[in-house]
Specification:
The protein has 21 helices and 16 strands. By secondary structure, it is α/β, with parallel strands linked by helices. The structure holds cobalamin (B12) and iron/sulfur cluster (SF4). The site of iron/sulfur cluster has 11 residues, from helix 9.
Length: 589
């Protein structure tokens, strides 16, 4: 159209509503909080991409793109209100269901339903759709349920494709499927993940997030990431990372979760850390970072030291298990139990908290072996936080694909694929026994005695104890009291009668509010009691004049006779691992 005509045409408004769905709790209501844990990085990434499209006016000079973001973990998806907004735009717009995981897929479809009924275009993306499209037959698992609602499926990454999607939606030509899983984007120069500060304030603490890179070279059989984001490291450039930091710092945000699954294998880790160090030490931006790494990161020269200088205060490590037979079974042989203590002590020496992911229900596990392993971890590993997870065949993983092709029975309720519910059988334990030992793991590990040990170790290492307390509280409280995994935690659970799972029997309003109010009072009383208890414990530990001299097996530096530790002798496969380690040492020294 000639420019003169375009300029006289009335401006139109294209409404884009980006919603990150939560998922349903066992009671059938959405898990939502007054304040969520951290802002969603998937939402930040899509918001950044959508803002870029709006700035570039990809729908034409006469169309404004208005973008709203809603994270359901901290805000109610008020469908009636949103439908009114779409009506004001003359139905010209699109709902994007963002970063939808398998456990969030049923909720995502429930959100989509009323929008589709009103004729609003809905597109769903994220790990469930991408994992299924990448690994299965294009219809499994439950993808046809979305198609039946007229919801468009988007598999793969949005960068470089969102503009076309918006154009298709604006012209009424959305396709049923978009599949970019075979075509991974070059991350360099892509728009920055970004969320406005008002939005970030709906979480506990002003943390931002971004992925400095995507992809991991390893091949763990339970992992979906390598099949969706690939095994080749793709990275934002140091300039991109600096832009993300500066854009967020302009809003007062200086603490970030780097969501790379394995930052140690980001091929640009060193120039990125050098840039972050410069931002921290020269520009004095008070960076505080949490990163995810593997168990061999301590062998990379300068890695841990540079992480500390860049502002890393917390590190998540995919430890998964302490039994080499189990690690072999999940194709994670790169996790060497002989290196665990060296690696953890290396982080401790820099005053950095360690979080470990630990999977329960690997092939050699039994309830008894899990109890024994928890004791070994408590006694011999200098770990701060352990995140327990049930081995889950997530669609998109090699495990799931193998089981699905073999017709192995798996739970059809996708809401349960949240690492908290047993969804398949185990050779050594019943589903009930497996579920029970998962719940027991939380209270066993975070026992009052062990929490005291963790604080004593923290005091001996000179870490800020208040930060350690803040990190510990959700892990002590969430699973036993709220029956919710701490990674889905928040402050003050919110519920609304309209957030009940589609198809479940309605609850009378009086019963709904009576139960909700009672739970809120009781659970928050328990939370307050835990906080008071741990703060008193902290004071006691801090006042101990011998706190710096505290030492136990876990804190003892690694020596040659470590081989007497239970960690290296008690599990199946440990002795073979030690024998192999000694053989390699003899051959190489
Ligand atoms: C960071 C992270 C978290 C953080 C979230 C905090 C934060 N700041 O974001 C924490 C630690 C809290 C967390 C918690 C959980 N997580 Co998590 N998490 C991740 C991780 C490592 C990165 C997520 C991310 O930001 N990726 C980068 C973004 C940009 O990628 P993306 O979401 O795929 O989005 C891209 C495309 O998919 C696409 N896209 C996505 N949505 C849409 C929508 C539209 C319309 C379009 C067009 C495109 C599109 O475009 C995006 C940009 O390219 C991923 C693994 C991974 N590598 O992604 C696991 C992952 C997403 N998490 C997972 C799980 C299971 C969980 C938990 C349930 C664990 C638990 N025990 O509680 C909880 C759920 C919490 C919640 N309410 O969401 C699984 C989901 C797998 C699955 N199939 O269901 C993953 C894949 C890890 C795994 N083990 O496989 N997680
Ligand atoms: S190390 Fe982590 S991200 Fe890499 S393949 Fe294994 S589980 Fe996936």
């Amino acid at each position: 159209m000639p420019h003169s005509l375009a300029s006289v045409r009335p401006r139109r408004r294209f409404c884009v509503v980006l919603i990150k769905p939560s998922h349903y709790h066992d009671d059938g209501y959405v898990i939502r909080w007054w304040r969520g844990l951290v802002p969603s990085n998937s939402l930040a990434a899509l918001h950044g991409v959508a803002l870029d499209c709006a700035r570039r006016a990809v729908l034409g000079a006469d169309v404004d793109i208005a973008i709203d973001v809603i994270d359901e973990t901290n805000s109610r998806v008020n469908v009636a209100k949103l439908l009114r907004r779409f009506r004001r735009c003359g139905g010209f717009g699109m709902v994007g269901l963002i970063g939808v995981q398998t456990n969030q897929y049923p909720r995502a479809l429930d959100i989509a339903r009323p929008f589709r009924a009103a004729g609003v275009a809905v597109v769903i993306g994220g790990f469930h759709v991408s994992g299924c499209m990448a690994m299965l037959d294009g219809t499994a698992v439950d993808l046809d349920r979305a198609r039946a609602l007229g919801v468009t499926l988007f598999a793969g990454e949005a960068e470089g494709r969102f503009a076309t999607l918006l154009q298709d939606a604006a012209t009424g030509h959305l396709k049923p499927d978009y599949d970019f899983t075979a075509d991974l984007v070059d991350m360099s120069g892509q728009p920055s993940p970004f969320l406005p500060i008002a939005f970030v304030k709906r979480t506990a603490g002003t943390n931002g997030s971004f992925d400095a890179g995507r992809g991991c070279p390893y091949q763990c059989s339970f992992c979906t990431i390598i099949n969706v984001q690939g095994r080749k490291s793709r990275s934002r450039s140091p300039d991109d990372v600096e832009n993300v930091i500066r854009e967020n710092w302009a809003e007062g945000i200086s603490r970030f979760f780097l969501t790379d699954d394995n930052f140690a294998r980001n091929r640009e880790w060193e120039p990125i850390l050098d840039r972050l160090i410069a931002l921290r030490e020269i520009d004095l931006i008070p960076l505080g970072l949490m990163i995810q790494v593997d168990t061999l990161c301590h062998r990379i020269p300068n890695f841990i030291e540079k992480c500390r200088r860049a502002g890393v205060t917390r590190v998540f490590i995919g430890l998964e298990n302490i039994n080499p037979d189990n690690l072999k079974a999940i194709k994670k042989p790169q996790n060497k139990i002989t290196e665990y203590r060296k690696m953890l002590l290396a982080w401790k020496a820099q005053g950095i908290f360690t979080y470990a992911g630990y999977i329960l229900g690997l092939p050699s596990d039994t309830p008894e072996s899990i109890r024994r392993d928890i004791e070994i971890i408590q006694r011999e590993l200098p770990l701060d936080i352990v995140e327990w997870a049930i081995l889950t065949p997530l669609p998109g993983s090699e495990d799931h694909t193998r089981m699905w092709k073999a017709g192995v029975a798996m739970d059809g309720n996708l809401n349960n694929y949240d690492f908290e519910h047993v969804v398949a059988d185990h050779a050594n334990m019943s589903r009930a026994a497996w579920q029970a030992i998962y719940h027991e793991a939380w209270t066993r590990y975070y026992s009052p005695a062990h929490v005291e040990t963790l604080l004593k170790r923290g005091a001996a290492a000179g870490v800020p104890l208040l930060s350690l307390v803040k990190a510990l509280v959700p892990f002590i409280h969430m699973a036993p009291v709220e029956n919710i995994h701490p990674l889905q935690a928040g402050l003050f659970r919110r519920k609304h009668p309209s957030e009940r799972r589609h198809g479940l029997a309605p609850v009378p309003l009086w019963a709904f509010y009576a139960r909700h109010i009672a739970n809120t009072v009781v659970n928050n009383f328990k939370l307050a009691s835990t906080i008071v208890w741990i703060l008193r414990l902290k004071r006691r530990v801090e006042r101990d004049p011998r706190r710096h001299a505290y030492i136990d097996v876990a804190l003892t530096p690694v020596v040659d006779d470590d081989a007497t530790l239970d960690l290296l002798t008690k599990t199946t496969g440990a002795q073979a691992a030690i024998a192999h380690f000694k053989k390699v040492a003899a051959l190489t020294h």
